[in-house]
Amino acid sequence: MRLIILRSVTWFAGLMPTVWLVWRFLDDRLGANPIEEILHRLGDVSLIFLLVTLAITPLRAVVGWNEIIKIRRPLGLFGFFYLTMHFLTYAVLDQTLDFEFIIEDVLERPYISIGFTAWILLIPLAITSTKGWIRRLGKHWKKLHRLAYVATIMGVVHFYWQVKADTYWPTLAAMLITVLMIYRIRSSRGRWRPQVREAKNR
Amino acid sequence: MLIGKSGKIPSSEITPEGMYLNRRQFIGKSAAVVAGASMGSGIGGSIEPENSQKDWSKVRSELDEELTPFDDVTSYNNFYEFGTGKSDPVRNAHTLRPRPWTIEVGGLCDNPGTYGLEDFIKPGNIEDRVYRMRCVEAWSMVIPWQGFSLKDVIDQAKPSGSARFVEFRTLHDLEQMPGQRYGVLRWPYVEGLRLDEAKHPLTMLITGVYGKTLPNQNGAPIRLIVPWKYGFKGIKSIVSMRFLEEMPMNTWKRSASHEYGFYANVNPDVSHPRWSQARERRIGEFRRRRTLMFNGYADEVASLYSGMDLRTHY
């Protein structure tokens, strides 16, 4: 029962940003520069989902509730979905598929290069998120999916490099990812390892 | 006029020939000076024009570009004194009290003074100017401003021969401008122009938009507009103007000098280090359009920068 609620909340949270953006679009409430607004909000939402995804494992140890691991995959996939929408908004709406400019941006603008790379890195992770791929990849799966940390850090750097002067939100995101990384590194070294009963979970 | 003066012409008064030759051209073309746009009384500093019901759709044809709607001009603003989001100023700028207001004119000039707004603005001099506004963030608008030439103020102040720059400051008041409580930028906001740029006929002090008194979020009660430069040069809610010998340090240059310079001329060939300046999104349009050199005012202003490397002097 608790799991059903948890899953419903996850799907609700995952679809809310889409509903919210579509509603604002239809109601003409995206402001004077709707493309920029959609682009930025999709970027925010994507980064939030990726950070929350990475926070699930530590959270599991802190609250001692193993079942929440089951929402990690949908959360991560929502993060990837919004990142893809963010990229498509940039390429299709913002740049109207003018590849000359897109390529120049990706190659020459560091904040776009790093954001683009993060998206590319997450593609194989999204593909291999199915049960079949988890089985097929075995122990390699875990290693491959550590790329989620790399991509999220890149996302935070992309965010930080993009703003003009107000670094409040990017700094907050950077602090969060730092805490998550410290936890990750310490737990992988064997110290401070959470008492996780993996077997019961499966 | 700038030339034909008898006697010794101070160095600050010398106009490049190219600019003189271009005067007629720009008055006819890009400045879009609308005849009969006399503004209302200056009582109490109110400059609500008599013709605020004017048909702005007619103005469009003079620049041959569609005006950006009033709602967009007044709801999508960079004015960090009221928050760093573009929709923050319209929500937060109600704390600004644009009247009464005083402006100090000082520095290297023979005729310094502190003026009440109503003495500073001469209603008879108010003109309409439809200008393109190009933000450094690669979006743009076309805006019908009302204001007067900065040159009028400069001529009255009589800058001394050694004055080469004008520095402007925004109000510094944490009560009226709550954004100044945060160290996002160094406060107060400072901008500057070279004296010849400041005296250029396109350079305006603005007190109104769309025939209405300038809204707080657009820089009430008085702001600068230099249409061939990126929008951040157009300092808002000005309280002081000083003539200097040395180039003043403007706020964005101080914040990130490798990204924002003193000149900040619109230039599609010189990218911002983080993004391209080759194109811009005109607010209200879908596809980006190509950015024009000097924002389309090259004929009028290019001569101000002849011989300068615009890559180093960005």
Structural account:
The complex is a heterodimer of chains A (202) and B (314). With 202 residues, chain A is mostly helical. Chain A has one domain. Chain A has helices at residues 2-26, 34-63, 72-94, 99-108, 110-127, 131-137, 139-145, 147-162, 168-188, 198-201. In chain A, helix 2 (34-63) packs antiparallel against helix 3. The two termini of chain A are 17 Å apart. Residues 198-202 of chain A have low confidence and may be disordered. In chain B, 17% of the residues lie in helices and 20% in strands. In chain B, the strands form two sheets. In chain B, strands 3, 4, 7, 8, 9, 11 and 12 form a seven-stranded mixed beta sheet that branches. A five-stranded mixed beta sheet of chain B has the order 2-1-10-5-6. Chain B is an alpha+beta fold and 314 residues long. The longest helix of chain B is centred in the N-terminal third of the chain and has 12 residues, at 17-28. Chain B has helices spanning 17-28, 56-63, 70-73, 88-92, 117-120, 150-157, 195-198, 251-255, 298-301, and strands at 102-107, 113-116, 127-134, 139-149, 165-170, 190-194, 204-209, 212-213, 223-225, 238-244, 279-282, 289-290. Chain B has one domain: Alpha-Beta Complex (Sulfite Oxidase, Chain A, domain 2), CATH 3.90.420.10. Chain B starts with 16 loop residues before the first helix and ends in a 13-residue tail after the last helix. Mean pLDDT of chain B is 86; it is low at 1-50. Classes of the chains: A mainly alpha (202), B alpha+beta (314).
